[in-house]
Amino acid sequence: MLFTIIIATHDRPLLLKRTLQSLIAQTCQDFRVVVVSDSASYLPPYPELAALDGRFVFMIRSGQPGPAVSRDMGMAVADGDYLIFLDDDDTFRPDHLAALKQRLQQDRPELLFCDFQVQQEDRTVSPPRPLHCQSLSIADVTFDSVYVRNRIPNSCVAYRRDVLAGLHNDTELIIYEDWDFLLAAMAGRSLVHVATDTVVIHKSEATAPENMRRGNSRNENVLPVMLLLYRRHAAPNMQTRLARQALLASAGVVLDLSHF
């Protein structure tokens, strides 16, 4: 298989069904799906899985909740040439994998990222009611800029499988575990952009219950985790160090460059 798509999920069966339906609709079917649920409180989406007959693994795990452990479990059984971590509330437009495949066949880049659309929606009704959609280009993201702040959604990155050898998701991070993982994968490698906005990032009201998990709504987590990641992943050059310093200075934080 060219792609293995890993979906970490937690108690969102209707959103997971929508995500799987977007995979079933792909014009490129050269993929396998690994779904890892950290909750056994609902039944798997059997009709969607049946449509992926022979090309899926569905695992229910115990232990610490959260996507990090689930993504690691997914990586352990992944066999595709490229791995994609698709969030359980995001979707792909039907031509997404075909667009990636066309680019990957040119020179097999180590890490590929793409543009995306943001779909605002009302999840107080079922199925969610679309509100408005905006296409966003992140073509200006560079290797160095990711060391300052991450503008690449997790679902927009395709990792060549050999790049991930020995890498693990940090289960202790409250937020930004996907940024930490991306930085670890980028070390000494190239980051390539493909101009397709075929990933759809679905968002609901910031104060909605699904957005309150794992501290995602608590701004006090942002600065300490950013500083931790800055220490863990040294800036590749002085220009990037200065950009980190300037970003934190805009928030009133003085950064000692000797440590970052």
Automatic annotation (TrEMBL):
InterPro entries: Glyco_trans_2-like, Glycosyltransf_2, Nucleotide-diphossugar_trans. Residues 4-132 form the Glycosyltransferase 2-like domain. Pfam families: Glycos_transf_2. Transmembrane segments: none annotated. It comes from the Bacteria. Gene3D superfamilies: Spore Coat Polysaccharide Biosynthesis Protein SpsA, Chain A. One of its GO terms (molecular function) is transferase activity. Keywords: Transferase. This is Glycosyltransferase. It comes from Duganella fentianensis. The lineage of its organism: Bacteria, Pseudomonadati, Pseudomonadota, Betaproteobacteria, Burkholderiales.
